[in-house]
Amino acid sequence: WIAVRGVRSVFKPIETMASVVRATQAGEDRRIGPIGTRDEIGELAHQFDTMLDQLAARNREVQRAAAALEIKVDERTRELAQTNAELRQTIALLEKTQQQLILADKLSALGKMAAGIAHEINNPAAVILGNLDVLVAELGPKAKPVAAELELIAQQVERIQHIVTSLLQFARA
Asked: Can you tell me the distance from the alpha carbon of 115 to that of 21, in angstroms, rounded to the nearest whole number?
């Protein structure tokens, strides 16, 4: 009976420790607790409980760190989303500005071309008007039968010059 009791006093704490190990592996939070002996097995049980307490504390620290990290990740994600939105707005503004620059360049080229055309038309029109004045002065009273036609030619040349002036004003704008 003493031998059985002695064996039980050794194996009972070991069985309790094994039970706590299985429970810890299953995710339970259990401890061995005092086993009533102060020998090596009692010390082992006490140290095992201390180790489980430290492990639980470390797990809580890891969970707190993971939660803090998650908060930081969320903050950074929001910051990145905001920065991306700002970049999209900047890109849209740049594209709009580029389109406006292209249009301004086209208008500038059109203005230069209009100025060139106006100059090329204005010179012959001035020569026609000048020669028409010379013709009327040279013919004098003999130009009377065709005076209406000569006046019409002068009006049309002046109309051409007015169109040219409008083109030049457009080119300057």
From this structure: 96
Does the pTM surpass 0.85? The reply is: no
Closest CA to 157 of 130, 136, 138, 135: 130
The helix (run of H) or strand (run of E) holding residue 38 is none
131-167 pLDDT tens trace: 999 999 999 999 999 999 999 999 999 999 998 888 7
DSSP string, 52-91: HHHHHHHHHHHHHHHHHHHHHHHHHHHHHHHHHHHHHHHH
Instruction: Please state the separation of Cα 50 from the chain's center in Å.
Output: 54
Which DSSP string corresponds to 96-139?
Answer: HHHHHHHHHHHHHHHHHHHHHHHHHHHHHHHHHHHHHHHHHHHH
- Give the count of beta carbons closer than 10 Å to the beta carbon of residue 167: 20
